[in-house]
Design brief:
alpha+beta, six-stranded mixed beta sheet, three-stranded antiparallel beta sheet, 14 strands, 17% strand
Length: 403
């Protein structure tokens, strides 16, 4: 299989062949979630929250209430858990994750950093049971304090709540307007028919996660498949071998890849992909950097935590996917306080990739207009940084208002 074929298979698996609906519905949302499998959650809001962006990249402009309804109203379709990292996952994966929950319970958290405090844990669960869905801040404010106890404070409460969440003792019912987590009892979050499902064996759970990763990737290496749900090496390798033996995964050699590849038997092999999308830094297409380089010959690093003078491309840089190639990257910011709150989309920098097609700037300008409209921003400003910026500024104007 050539790299170009593998690239098209991967984009098809991620939903970039699906026809966009004029007004995306819950059915559109469900179809898109089936492609991505998970939606990574991140607190950075310089443009739009990370979990909203992959849906936009595939569905086009949509009402973000679709995601909130799926996450917070009955029948719940998705729930937050440590599935890739913090992410929304289909709610039916809750039983599949029970072994992971048991592992976190044994390790005392994701990184084994929470000291055992059974009194605090029991009190927090009791408070949540009595109050209903609660934030760490509200629980910390309401709990009794004692200088001769553990010296409870917000950070201690938050750490224990996070441990209880990863251990499956609490679940996330939603988030408030400040993006704070609302913790609740699992039985008040997870549908009863899902809670009642038996816990699969470790082997069954591993096969299910690798199966889902393979469907979302289309074609992938073993490490790619393992990373999708952040699985242990041995469990992932065993699951891959079993699915190969069963014929669900087909071994394949991709030109230029140094590692063996695996093609899901149901993967689509399109002759062309006509995508146009800005990809969040947390989009599944680009979150595994080696895979991104192997598929797109595109080296990508998030520079949020890099000191400003040392950044190469910018603070919040989105790759620009055009047809089946990543042809550029743009550093974007939603300035919602501009012009008495009308807001503007600021292009802090824009760069073309080597060999970018002649229509890259024109297509990017069109995509930026659509993005600004979706974000309810009234204008676009292109700052003069990057080799693609002059052409982009000429197309959208230095501070172009959107009609």
């Amino acid at each position: 299989m050539s790299v170009a074929q593998a690239r098209r298979v991967a984009l098809a698996a991620q939903g970039f062949l699906d026809k966009r609906h004029a007004a995306p519905t819950m059915r559109t949302f469900q179809r898109t979630l089936e492609r991505t499998g998970v939606l990574q959650v991140d607190s950075v809001n310089v443009l739009q929250r990370a979990h909203f962006m992959p849906l936009y990249s595939r569905m086009g402009p949509y009402d973000v209430e679709l995601l909130r309804r799926a996450a917070e109203r009955r029948p719940r379709r998705i729930v937050e858990y440590w599935a890739h990292v913090q992410a929304y996952m289909p709610v039916e994966l809750w039983p599949v994750m029970r072994h992971r929950m048991a592992s976190y319970r044994e390790k005392r958290g994701k990184w084994g950093t929470v000291d055992e405090k059974p009194g605090l844990e029991a009190d927090l669960i009791a408070e949540v049971r009595d109050r209903g869905a609660s934030t760490a801040r509200s629980l910390d404010d309401g709990l009794p304090r004692s200088k001769d106890n553990w010296g409870w404070n917000w950070s201690e409460t938050r750490r224990v709540l996070d441990y209880l969440f990863t251990a499956g003792e609490l679940a996330i019912a939603g988030r408030n307007s400040q993006f704070e987590i609302l913790y609740d009892l699992p039985e008040r979050v997870i549908p009863p028919e899902i809670l009642a499902l038996p816990t699969p064996s470790v082997e069954e759970a591993s096969r299910e996660l690798i199966r889902r990763a393979a469907r979302s990737h289309g074609v992938a290496t073993g490490p790619d498949l393992r990373d999708y749900y952040r699985m242990p090496v041995a469990a992932a390798a065993a699951a891959v071998a079993e699915l190969v033996e069963e014929g669900e995964l087909l071994p394949v050699q991709v030109q230029g890849w140094t590692r063996p590849g695996y093609l899901h038997r149901d993967a689509r092999l399109p002759r062309r992909v006509d995508a146009r999308a800005l990809l969040s830094p947390f989009d599944p297409v680009v979150w595994e950097r080696r895979r991104t380089e192997e598929l797109f010959d595109f080296r990508y690093r998030i520079e949020i935590y890099v000191p400003a003078p040392q950044r190469v491309h910018g603070y919040y840089v989105l790759p620009f996917l055009l047809r089946d190639r990543i042809v550029g990257r743009v550093d974007l910011k939603a300035d919602r306080q501009f012009d008495a709150g009308a807001g503007r989309l600021v292009v802090k920098a824009a760069y073309a990739e080597p060999g970018a097609p002649a229509d890259a700037a024109e297509e990017l300008a069109a995509e930026l207009r659509q993005l600004a409209g979706w974000l309810d921003l009234a204008s676009i400003t292109v700052e003069p940084r990057g080799d693609l910026a002059p052409a982009l500024a000429a197309l959208v104007g230095a501070g172009a208002a959107l009609g």
